[in-house]
C-alpha cells in the first residue's frame, strides 16, 4: 500500500548498473501480491481490491514490454492477499494466500490447479532446492516438504517436517528478532510488518539470511547448510558449513531498537 492505496506501477532494477527504470503499469492496482518467473516471464497473482477481478493474474513479457491477463482462475473463494509464492520445477507457480489456500498456475498449459492448504500462516521464506520446499518458522526451525506435495490430493494439507541436526543454528536464530518474535506483538502482525529472513541456495546447499541487533546497528548474517537425504527414515539432515556476518547496517536516524529491521528481497550466487 502506498499512502493507503494500491498501486499499478512496476519498476525494474538493473543490478549490473544499479539503475531503476519504469515498466508499463499493470492492468489493475495491487498490494500484497506475489510473483514468480517462468521462462523469463514474470507472473503476478492477487493483490487486487476485488478478489474476483478478471485481472487477478497477469504476466509481463520483458521482450515486448507488455502485460497480458491470465485465464480466469477457478471460482472457488480465494483471497487477494498472497503471503507466499514459489516456482517449482521451473514451470509451475504456486501461491498461498493469507487463509492458507494454495493455488497452482501452469504457464505452458495456461491452466490453474487447486493446491494444498497450509493453515499455519507464519511460515515464510519459501524456497525450492532440488524439488524440496523449505521454510523457516518461529523458534528457529527450518522445515521441509516435497515440492510435488503442493498439488492437491488427499490429504489436502501440506505435510511439513523439520530439518534435523541444526540445534546450534536454531539457538542462534532464536536471537534474531525476525525469527524469534520476542517482543510483544502477535506473530501474525509481525509476519505482515516484517517479512523477515530469506532462504536461498548455492548449488545443492541452502543459504539462510537473518538479522541480529547489535549496539547501534543491525548485523545481517548468512549461513551455508549442506543437506543430506536419509530416505530410509524419511528425514533430511543439515550440516552447518559456515555462519558469519556478511554486512552491517547503521540506521541513519536513532530509533528504538525494535524499529530497526530490514527485508532481504533476493540473493544470487556468483562464481568469482
From TrEMBL:
InterPro entries the record matches: F-box/kelch-repeat_ARATH (IPR050354), Gal_Oxidase_central_sf (IPR037293), Kelch-typ_b-propeller (IPR015915), Kelch_FKB95 (IPR057499)
Sequence ranges assigned to domain FKB95-like N-terminal Kelch in this UniProt record: 4-246
Name of the protein this chain belongs to: BnaC02g45940D protein
Species for this entry: Brassica napus
Native organism taxonomy: Eukaryota, Viridiplantae, Streptophyta, Embryophyta, Tracheophyta
Gene this protein is translated from: BnaC02g45940D
